[in-house]
Amino acid sequence: MNKQDLISKIKQLDGVTQDERAYLINLVNTKKKYGLVWEDKPEDFEEQLRDNLPVLKEVKEKAIINGEDNPNHILIEGDNLHALTALTFTHEGKIDVIYIDPPYNTGAKEDFIYNDHYVDKEDAFRHSKWLSFMHRRLRIAKSLLKEDGVIFCSIGDDEISQLTLLFNEVFTENNKLGVIARVAKTAGDKGSYFAPSKDYIISYSKNKSILRDFKDGVDESLFKKTETVGLKIGEKYRDDVAFYQSSLDTRPNQRYFIKCPDGSFVVPPGESMPDKNEDGAKAIPISGDGVWRWANETFFEQGKRELLVFKQTKQSPLLDENGNRAKWNIYTKSYLNDRSEKGASPRDYLDQFINRKGADLIKQYDIDFSYSKPFELIQHLLKITNKSNDITVLDFFAGSGTALHSVMSLNELDKGTRTCIISTNNENNICEEVTYPRCERTINPYTNKKGKEMPSFPNNNLRYYKSEFVSRETSLNNKRELTHLATELLCIKENCYLEKSTTIKQAKLYENSKVALLILFDDIVIPEAINFIKNYSGNKIKVYVFSIGSDPYTEDFTEVLGKIELCALPDAIYKAYQNVLPKRKRPETIIDLETVNPINENGEQLSIL
């Protein structure tokens, strides 16, 4: 039935109240044919955003600055819904990779807290609360990703099915990259039927159609032999991959005889037999017949046959020209240099990144925390995305700060300049007593209580922020306050933190090797700013100027427009937030039923519905 036809019939129903009619219409409008349906549960952190705008305030005494040219990583203390909202102004469409490790919603104590209460297995809305919680955050996270951005999300058995459907809704099923099964622990006897030992990593892209293929490293230990002849003399190679594999699909151009060193011919097992000659004459295989890994045309390409290796064996799966078991098997030679350049497709099963490695490592930094993922896991995920070494990474369920550890370690390995943004609340003092100490001890040199000097990455900076708020009421005073508090947001947005002195009143100036950032807190200083810009010999200046509306006084800056980029504050922030903020609360109104449903001259009540 057509939805509009159904709504029209609902409007004509007798014997229902206005609220009942509105409820039925809403059901029709929101009903889904297929997918995930849950009851949205209000969240205190979202309610705060109905009346307030989030900003980020730097805690300067906690900054770790080891050089202005080092990557500037960011730690945000506060609820991640507020942090994500603020990041829509600074990083919309700029994040390359997101990794998150949200609560698994197992029902165990201290796993998932919603509105200051633990959610246990007996909670009738356990899954709805978790889905409401995740949906709000994933929707904003998607807006932060670049078009070819990738998100990885760790999750357990309790929510794997629901989370997959939720990702399908937010990112669409077409952008699903895969689900990785990971061995989380190797021992244990908990569980009535199975001992739980694994979890999952869901992976999606914002736009899969423009995403490069993932690429994993090659296991060099497999390449045990060294070439002794030819153009590749001295290179490492392997020759243990069979040229025939039983799992290959049957195709007509991949079944042909190959001549062996003793003059005999071999073919994969099957009923159809090709012509027995040296030009590789093909057979039309019967269903189930085996085939070679190369098409007949590839076999004759220059240099290809030199990659075939013939080995005598009594267990060959191949047939000779008489249909008997052959005494030869054929393998292909693969060179390490070629394979390393091409890379390998990553597996969707991981067994080398168990949780114990993460827990053991963080203890060595004298930090008491039992739930840290191994940093090598996130490092592996970043590497297989096949992205450049200057990307931006986000983790808004930071926990102990494993993602930042991973990024800094990876930068150390390949001389990269990746930056990382991590966000966590401070429940049970986790940010102050776990996340920040770990960041500090992995950036600056640290010797633990046992006298061991721990690995550190001093060529990095960390800047620490807390969430603060400004009223959403667009009064002049609130606009001015938001403009002043936006300074830190602008520094994050432009990655420009070094403040320089300026003679311009009610203004701030920041510079780095790539950009200058000039913030004007009042339009009365525009003439001074123009004189400064005329004499400025550095990089192009980004000028943010306070304006009541959306005009950044473009006409006033006409004579220096070629040297600047203009933007109006706080209008730019309002525009960035408008698509992610919840709707404002509307004041309740008292309805006069006699006014809504007036009475006619006969004393009958009329309906306006």
Averaged pLDDT: 90
Distance between the termini: 23 Å
Proportion of residues in helical segments: 25-40%
Shape: globular
Describe the structure.
By secondary structure, the chain is of the alpha/beta class. β23 (507-511) and β24 (516-520) form a beta hairpin. α4 (80-91) crosses α16. The longest helix has 19 residues, at 126-144. The protein is globular and about 95 Å long.
List the SSEs and their pairings.
Blueprint: H1 3-11, H2 18-30, H3 44-51, E1 52-58, E2 72-77, H4 80-91, E3 95-100, E4 113-114, E5 117-118, H5 126-144, E6 145-155, H6 160-171, E7 176-183, E8 198-205, E9 225-226, E10 236-242, E11 258-259, E12 265-267, H7 296-299, E13 308-312, E14 319-320, E15 328-335, H8 336-342, E16 349-350, H9 355-364, H10 375-384, E17 392-395, H11 402-414, E18 419-424, H12 430-443, E19 446-447, E20 453-454, E21 461-471, H13 476-485, H14 487-494, E22 498-500, E23 507-511, E24 516-520, H15 526-535, E25 541-546, E26 564-569, H16 571-577, H17 593-596
Parallel strand pairs: 2-18, 2-21, 3-6, 3-17, 7-16, 17-18, 24-25, 25-26
Antiparallel strand pairs: 1-21, 4-5, 6-8, 7-8, 9-10, 10-15, 11-12, 12-14, 13-15, 19-20, 22-23, 23-24
